[in-house]
């Protein structure tokens, strides 16, 4: 049974840091491409970052580039999203998604399975 579980969200002050974790199960993790997406209240869900199954390719939305870092450990079946210098506009529910293929992209339709999300709130 496929399952995607996110964790690590919480409340943080402006300029602070959080690290989100994504733990897919039921997959051959070494072949899984992982994407992080977020949705703020009243806004559409948007792509944040993704990492290829080998970890060689990563992509970031312009709004988070230089502040967020995605990484994975295929031996532990885990993906992390390290978020630094957080801003109020980063407040959203963050979702992890699993897809398969070459490289990675931030197109939502490309991903097959999604987690329930974890809330990140940045207070000013």
Percent helix range: under 10%
Order of helices and strands: EEEEEEEEEEE
Rg over alpha carbons: 13 Å
Number of strands: 11
Tell me the overall shape: globular
Alpha plus pi helix count: 0
Unreliable stretches: none
Proportion of strand residues: over 45%
**Main β sheet profile:** 7 strands, mixed
Report, as a whole number of angstroms, the end-to-end distance: 41 Å
Q: Which structural class best describes the helix and strand composition?
A: mainly beta
Q: Write down the overall mean pLDDT.
A: 96
Report a brief summary of the structure.
The chain has strands at 3-7, 10-13, 18-25, 32-39, 46-51, 58-60, 68-73, 78-83, 92-100, 113-114, 118-123. By secondary structure, the protein is mainly beta. The model has no long low-confidence stretch (mean pLDDT 96).
Structure in words:
The chain is an all-beta fold. It has no helices and eleven strands. Strands 2, 4, 5, 6, 9, 10 and 11 form a seven-stranded mixed sheet that branches. A hairpin with a 6-residue loop joins strand 4 (32-39) and strand 5 (46-51). The protein is globular, with a radius of gyration of 13 Å. The relative contact order is 0.32.
SSE layout:
Layout: E1 3-7, E2 10-13, E3 18-25, E4 32-39, E5 46-51, E6 58-60, E7 68-73, E8 78-83, E9 92-100, E10 113-114, E11 118-123
Parallel strand pairs: 2-11
Antiparallel strand pairs: 1-3, 3-8, 4-5, 4-9, 5-6, 7-8, 9-10, 9-11
């Amino acid at each position: 049974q496929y399952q995607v579980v996110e964790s690590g969200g919480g409340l943080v002050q402006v300029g602070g840091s959080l690290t989100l974790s994504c733990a897919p199960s039921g997959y051959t993790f070494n072949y899984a491409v992982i994407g992080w997406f977020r949705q703020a209240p009243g806004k559409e869900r948007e792509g944040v970052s993704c990492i290829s199954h080998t970890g060689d390719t990563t992509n970031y939305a312009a709004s988070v580039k230089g502040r967020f870092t995605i990484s994975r450990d295929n031996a532990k079946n885990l993906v992390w999203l390290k978020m630094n210098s957080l801003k109020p506009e980063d407040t959203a529910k963050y979702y992890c998604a699993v897809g398969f293929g070459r490289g990675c992209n931030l197109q939502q339709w490309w991903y097959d399975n999604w987690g329930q999300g974890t809330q990140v709130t940045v207070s000013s």
